[in-house]
């Protein structure tokens, strides 16, 4: 049951010494375990960046997302982008996870996190170049859960690869158009 929000929300980089992740449960054990056991290690090793949503004045994590850099083969696209490098790899920002605590689900936090991802992708693209956002839709929970997740990402403009339906992408060009609306 959604609760009324008593304080403004903040999105900040995960600080394991400060943010309370002990009670976080989004309903997907793999995502809960990532936050509990792996996020600190991967962030310290510069493999990913984890961003968390908290209420002002509180350290309990309400949701999180992870991002990291990656490469994508241009040949996976229906049409090779103009100006793409000869080596065929395109720079991407990889969205690893988006998770919202069960107690905060249904309040729009997933959309807030996705908007934050878009803003981060725009910053990366402005500084270093980035062709697209890329993600793999989790298959945990069966086909119905997978379809629900895939439809959720499609609602933000992500498209599946023909050869790999669980992998989705959104070009920065399309993402910028979404942000400008």
Automatic annotation (TrEMBL):
The reaction(s) annotated as catalysed by this protein in its Swiss-Prot or TrEMBL entry are:
glycyl-tRNA(Gly) + acetyl-CoA = N-acetylglycyl-tRNA(Gly) + CoA + H(+)
Q: Which Gene3D superfamilies has this protein been placed in?
A: 3.40.630.30
Question: Where does the record place a coiled coil?
Answer: none
Q: Where is the N-acetyltransferase domain?
A: 1-173
Q: Name one GO molecular function term.
A: acyltransferase activity, transferring groups other than amino-acyl groups
Q: InterPro entries attached here? A: Acyl_CoA_acyltransferase, GNAT_dom
* Record key words, sorted: Acyltransferase, Repressor, Toxin-antitoxin system, Transferase
Give a Pfam family name. Acetyltransf_7
The leader peptide range reads none
Which CDD domains does the UniProt entry name for this protein? NAT_SF
- Record's protein name: N-acetyltransferase domain-containing protein
> What is the organism field in this record?
Parvularcula bermudensis (strain ATCC BAA-594 / HTCC2503 / KCTC 12087)
The lineage is: Bacteria, Pseudomonadati, Pseudomonadota, Alphaproteobacteria, Parvularculales
């Amino acid at each position: 049951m959604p609760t009324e929000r008593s304080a403004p929300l903040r999105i900040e980089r995960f600080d394991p010494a400060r943010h309370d992740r002990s009670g976080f449960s989004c309903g997907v054990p793999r995502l809960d375990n990532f936050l509990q056991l792996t996020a600190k290690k991967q962030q310290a090793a510069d493999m990913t960046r984890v961003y968390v949503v908290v209420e002002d004045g509180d350290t309990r994590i309400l949701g999180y997302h992870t991002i990291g850099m990656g490469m994508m083969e241009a040949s996976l696209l229906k049409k090779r982008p103009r100006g793409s490098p000869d080596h065929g790899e395109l720079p991407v920002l990889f969205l690893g996870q988006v998770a919202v605590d069960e107690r905060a689900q249904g309040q729009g936090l997933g959309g807030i996190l996705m908007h934050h991802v878009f803003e981060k992708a725009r910053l990366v693209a402005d500084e270093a170049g980035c062709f697209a956002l890329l993600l793999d839709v989790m298959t945990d929970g069966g086909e119905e859960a997978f379809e629900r997740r895939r439809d959720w990402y499609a609602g933000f403009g992500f498209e599946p690869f023909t050869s790999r339906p669980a992998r989705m992408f959104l070009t920065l060009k399309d993402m910028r158009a979404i942000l400008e609306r």
